[in-house]
Design goal:
The chain is mostly beta strands. The chain has a single domain, classed as 3-Layer(aba) Sandwich (Ribosomal Protein L9, domain 1). About 5% of the residues lie in helices and about 15% in strands. The protein contains one helix and three strands. It has one helix at about 55-60, and strands at about 5-10, 15, 40. Strands 1-2-3 form a three-stranded antiparallel β-sheet, with no helix packed on it. Strand 1 (about 5-10) and strand 2 form a beta hairpin. The longest helix is centred in the last third of the chain and has 4 residues, at about 55-60. The chain starts with a strand and ends in a 10-residue tail after the last helix.
């Protein structure tokens, strides 16, 4: 089984590395290029390509910088 890693990018998307399937609330799959090593998922809500990031976080004022641990 391949490993998946999700990286929280400061003031940006979740970067998902590894083979994944993205499914909507109705169970329909989003098209994901299997040749890409990673996908970026929108966290700011401003992407025109949700659930994927299109870089809109850079101009909408989104701020977030989570850190693990406590």
């Amino acid at each position: 089984m391949s490993e998946v890693t999700i990286r929280c990018r400061d003031n940006g998307p979740f970067l998902v590395e590894g083979p994944v399937t993205v499914v909507d609330a109705d169970g329909n799959r989003f098209e994901v290029n299997p040749d890409k090593p990673a996908i970026a998922l929108c966290r700011c809500g401003s992407s025109a390509n949700r659930p994927f990031c299109d870089g809109a976080h850079k101009s909408c004022g989104f701020e977030s910088a989570e850190r693990a641990g406590g």
